[in-house]
Amino acid sequence: AVRVDLAPYFYSHLAQFAACSAVADVRAVGLMAAIELVAPAETPASLSGVLGAKFRSLCGEVGLIVRAEGNTIMIAPPLICTRSDIDRIAERLESAFGSLTRILRAQRTA
Hints:
single chain, four-stranded antiparallel sheet
């Protein structure tokens, strides 16, 4: 059921974040996913190297546990998750991406 139902559902939610200016790539195999972050060109160097850690913190603030390796975010919900769990994960990611976008905009104007 995971491979046929939940994995495509999970990826369809994650794929929407590819449109974010701070996202270079979204990839997944089953319920293991990675979102590669990239700083827009005008982002100060002091922030571009720590986007992953910053995004991990923003996810934690909204109750989502993710792993950051450099500027790549790994997400791996439990295999027993449901569609509603995936919906909540996507909502929390959307909130964290909103916060990251605001931070990047503020850095550009500072």
